[in-house]
């Protein structure tokens, strides 16, 4: 099989950097290897390098297209992360619905202290900020994905934190028929989501260090 020249490989790598901003070298080299192999297969079948590279790069376009802007995470990485964690996300939803229903149907009648709910929200909020500040320079796209996910929880954190303060002042009950148990369920699940994403950032940071050894 005919292999691509160094110049051709450099041209493809430059294309990947210019069009998809693949700044993490390990990932870029992996993608470059896949693309080069596919181009070489096409050339082996009698297709010219120009046509083969155009066809293969076109096929990879959607997979490499960044999600949420030019500096976002490539689509293929996002799909991979969701494929790994979809059962966890489903578990979060089911746990929330079950916990919420237990209170609404009167099966659970406890009334947790609103300060406990506020503590859960504050803990998740502060933890999220600390992780994002500590790992603002991500070492791989997995870290970028989960750091962005933590960033996306900031708005729910702020909303629930505000509601918690209103709840403590008892102003909340004047506008919403929400028990302290239901609010505690909401607060604890916000905390769980924050801890999960933070754990993922720490995990992939450790994994990147192991690869460097």
Question: Which features does this protein show?
Answer:
213 residues, mainly alpha, two-stranded antiparallel ribbon, 9 helices
Beta-strand percent range: under 5%
Compute the separation of the termini in Å: 34 Å
How many beta-strand runs?
2
Shape: elongated
> Which class best fits the helix and strand makeup?
mainly alpha
Low-confidence stretches: none
For the largest sheet, list the strands in their spatial order. 1-2
Overall description:
With about 210 residues, this protein is mostly helical. It has two domains: about 5-65, no CATH class; about 75-210, no CATH class. Helices cover about 80% and strands about 0% of the residues. It is built from nine helices and two strands; from the N terminus they run αααββαααααα. Strands 1-2 form a two-stranded antiparallel sheet. A hairpin with a 5-residue loop joins β1 and β2. α4 (about 75-105) packs antiparallel against α9 (about 180-210) and α5 (about 115-135) runs parallel beside α9 (about 180-210). The radius of gyration is 24 Å and the shape is elongated. The model has no long low-confidence stretch (mean pLDDT about 85).
Question: What's the layout of helices and strands?
Answer:
Blueprint: H1 6-20, H2 25-44, H3 49-64, E1 66-67, E2 73-74, H4 75-104, H5 114-134, H6 141-152, H7 154-169, H8 172-175, H9 180-212
Antiparallel strand pairs: 1-2
Write a brief structural summary.
This protein has 213 residues and is an all-alpha fold.
């Amino acid at each position: 099989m005919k292999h691509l020249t160094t110049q051709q490989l450099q041209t493809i790598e430059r294309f990947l950097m210019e069009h998809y901003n693949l700044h993490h070298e390990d990932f870029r080299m992996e993608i470059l290897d896949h693309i080069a192999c596919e181009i070489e297969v096409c050339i082996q079948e009698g297709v010219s390098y120009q046509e083969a590279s155009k066809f293969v790069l076109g096929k990879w376009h959607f997979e490499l297209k960044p999600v949420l802007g030019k500096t976002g995470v490539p689509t293929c990485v996002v799909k991979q992360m969701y494929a790994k964690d979809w059962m966890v996300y489903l578990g979060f939803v089911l746990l929330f619905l079950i916990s919420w229903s237990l209170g609404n149907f009167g099966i659970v009648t406890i009334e947790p202290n609103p300060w406990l709910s506020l503590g859960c929200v504050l803990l998740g909020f502060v933890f999220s900020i600390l992780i994002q500040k500590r790992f603002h320079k991500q070492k791989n796209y997995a870290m970028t994905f989960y750091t962005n996910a933590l960033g996306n929880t900031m708005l729910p954190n702020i909303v629930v934190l505000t509601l918690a303060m209103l709840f403590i002042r008892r102003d909340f009950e004047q506008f919403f028929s929400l028990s302290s148990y239901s609010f505690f369920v909401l607060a604890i699940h916000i905390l769980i989501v924050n801890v999960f994403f933070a754990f993922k950032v720490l995990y992939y940071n450790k994994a990147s260090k192991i690869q460097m050894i």
